Each structure stands twice: as structure tokens, then as C-alpha cells.
Amino acid sequence: MTDRTESETSRRALLLGAGAASLALAAPATAQVPTSPPVLPEPGAKRGLGMVLFEGFELLDVFGPLEMFGMIKDRVEIVTIAEKAGPVKSGAGPAAMADHGFADAPRLDIVMIPGGIGTRREVDNPAFMQAIRILAEATPQVATICTGAGVLAKTGLLDGHKATTNKMAWKWATAQGAKVLWVPKARWVDDGKFISSSGVSAGTDMALALISRLYGKAMAQWVADRAEYRWHDDPADDPFAAKNGLG
């Protein structure tokens, strides 16, 4: 074989190899997470979930849990509620749109109350607190994220119930309800009608726990996998209690 023939053979082999590699990269990857949920939708109406907004709410308190429930929108209808419909400015700056005011809020199965710097103001807002109390009394499942537990505690509805809250804001939040059975070391606490989470990111874990209770753990894990979220599924796994001198 001449040098020219060997060179052409090598060049051909390189081109064939490059072509094969390109085809391999272009080929669609095999899906590892199913696109369809593991549990068939329940017959009948969807559950209604309402997220409360107020000026100064914490962004992740709101959108972490809503992202999880939004993955199962074939069985959950999400709305946002504030004192009045329209834009509501978060503590970080960006506003979210409230679909309803308290006065025209639809009937709900789940209501969520986030935390944020605005909670410090709202606990001294009689109209807001009365609306929260009415909404929470009328809703079968009430969830709080972060210092949202302080808001609900101030209504008196958490008296005699176990709950947790943001460990960095522990002193302020727990002062809103002396008769609440506060749990200092917990990622979240499930006490039947009331389920509460620790600070900010813990609300996403709590939302998955609530999905697990309503639809099964396989569904909750599917939601977490679809979101590429590593679910902390142990409610007692709370390193932030010790970091803040609480456990």
C-alpha cells in the first residue's frame, strides 16, 4: 500500500468516525423520568389551591411550592389571593399578580400562607388578619411557609397545634402565638389540617410532603424528579435549628 493510499484510508476512517459521533449526539436520549405521572387523575373536580400574597412576600416561599403543585395541574387549580386583585410587590422587588381579592376568593381545598418581611407589618393589619382567619377557617387544608406560621398563629387558629417556622426568625414568629405547640427542630410539621414549614426553601419540601399525603409518595417523587429537585423527605432533618441555637 502506498503512502497516498494509507493517507486516504486514514482520512476516510476519521470522517466515518466523526459522522458516527455526530449521529450519536443527535440521537434523542432515552427518557429516564416518565412524562406521565404514576397515578391516574382522580375523577371529579380538581382541588383548588390558593396562595396568599401581600406586599413584602418571600419569592421562593410562594413559587417553590407552586412549582411543585403546578406539575400536577391536571388535578390542582392554582390561584393567587391578596387584599385586592392586581400586582403585589415581593420583598425582593419583583411583583406577582393576585388573581382575586379576599372578598371574591373562590372556594378552596388548600390555602398557603407564605412568609417574608411583609409579615411583620401584616400581623398588625386588622383587615388582613380577619381575612386570613376567615379564609383559613373555611379551607380544609392550611399550609404555612416560613414566617407565614406567625401570621396564622396570630389568628389563634394554631392554638393547641404543632407547628414550626423559620429558625432565623424563630423569636418573632413564635411570639405571635404563645399557645401554639412550636417544634424547634423540624423541616416541616404535619398536624392534620395545618402543615407548616421552616424557612424559605423548606416550603418546597413541605409542598412535596403534602402532595405525597394527597396523591402518594410515588407521585411526590415523580414531581421532584420532573423538577430536577432533590427532595429532603425527612421532616426531622433540620440542620438549621442547630445553626440558630435551637437544637
Number of strands: 11
Radius of gyration over alpha carbons?
A: 24 Å
Work out the oligomeric state of the chains in this entry: single chain
Mean pLDDT: 91
Task: Please render the helix and strand layout as text.
Blueprint: H1 3-26, E1 47-52, H2 59-70, E2 76-82, E3 86-89, E4 95-98, E5 100-101, E6 110-113, H3 119-122, H4 126-138, E7 141-144, H5 148-155, E8 162-163, H6 170-174, E9 181-182, E10 188-191, E11 194-197, H7 202-215, H8 217-226, H9 239-243
Parallel strand pairs: 1-2, 1-6, 2-5, 6-7, 7-11, 8-9
Antiparallel strand pairs: 3-4, 10-11
Helix pairs in contact: 2-7, 4-5, 7-8
Write up what this structure looks like.
With 247 residues, this protein is an alpha/beta fold. It is 38% helix and 17% strand. The chain is built from nine helices and eleven strands. Helix 2 runs parallel beside helix 7, helix 4 crosses helix 5 and helix 7 packs across helix 8. It is globular and about 50 Å long. The relative contact order is 0.13.
A few lines on this structure:
This protein has 247 residues and is of the alpha/beta class.
Provide keyphrases for this structure.
247 residues, alpha/beta, 9 helices, 11 strands, 38% helix, 17% strand
